[in-house]
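Task card 7
Instruction: Convert sequence to structure tokens.
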Amino acid sequence: MKLFKKIKKSKNHMNYLLVFVLLIYVFAIVSYAENKEHKEAEHNSNISEDHSGHDHSKEAERDHDDQDGEDHSGHDHSTEDEAGIKLSAKQIKESGIKVESVKLRKLHKEVSLLGDITVNEDMTAHVVSRVPGCVKKVRKTLGDKVKGGEVLADLESRELADAKANYLAALEKFSLEENIFSQEEDIFKKQISSEREYLNARHSMVDSRIELRSTKQKLVALGLSKEEIKKLPEQPDEMLTHFEMKSPFDGTIISKHITLGEVIKEDKEDDVNFVVANLDTVWVNLRVSQKDLPVIHVGQRGTISVGSGIPDTEGTISFVSQVLGKETRAALARLVITNTSGMYRPGLFVTAKIAIEGGKPEISVPVSAVQNIDGENVVFIQHEGEFEPRQVILGISDGKYIAITSGLKSGDKYVSQGAFELKTKIITSGMDAHAGHGH
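Output:
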């Protein structure tokens, strides 16, 4: 019983202690809150006094803005205010500088095709002997230039001699029959001879005329000209066997298959003795793949590049084959190009760039007008008597001109020739290469 009372008394003491701790905790919280409110009130009071007397932040901002304005007004990197290169009229002329206005142009897309140069087959002749015989003299050899009608080789031909003899005999016979008919006609008109004798004389003359024409046409078929046939009666007999193989037109001997003493037989008349080609024009044969066929057609212009120091040239597509090669599965496109210089030799491989279509007009300049300075593409603008580099963004190019997508506007005066010389002056003078970049 006593023990129970002691325990009960101990529990009361614990309760008192717990209540005391809680009171201390509440008092601490209230004190902290009051102290915080007091500090915040003092802080707000100080801020309002500072703002009413000296607004340093806004003044600082205004001072900073004023300074920035002064700096920006003194260092404007725009093209209009940046100092450029001043050149005299004499310096401009000596440097080869040409100024033009920016224009809109249609830039053509291109298809690149491979091919080779061949002879112009329309101006190539395979010269063969029209008569069998023995080669007595070869006058021209491989690579020789010849004129139309110039003798390439001399032959002796028995068959030709027979043809000439038959012609001369027919000529004599016709002359005789013509005289007889003339006499019979006079006698018949005087009613001395009969009509039958007159008609017989006329018939004989007509037959001889037909025979003469036949023998003459045979000589023409063998290659004799009308002038040569006309001179036959005046030639000595030993010339009856003489035959001259001639060039049909001006050209170059590009192939030769004939030797001195060679016997050319009648059954081998298809054998080619000389190949004469006029190389003033040549063909460029291009291989067109299936994917490019829809955009390649007759009339398109192409730029032909050979390389090896040979300048580029241009031509027009004159033919596109309708049938593809069995092995290559490619069509043939042909251009005819001028070759009076002789540089475009048959057999050379080429690359052709064909302009296939024109887009919308774009601001563009010659490729040479764009220069690279410090890794940036620039075009020189003429402004108030000075030349200033202006940064540009490039677009597509057709090889001659390049589109400018940003940096120029239509009507700007720019350096179309001599841009490299201006770039050199910038580098050598130490001028700021970023002039006109709009930093």
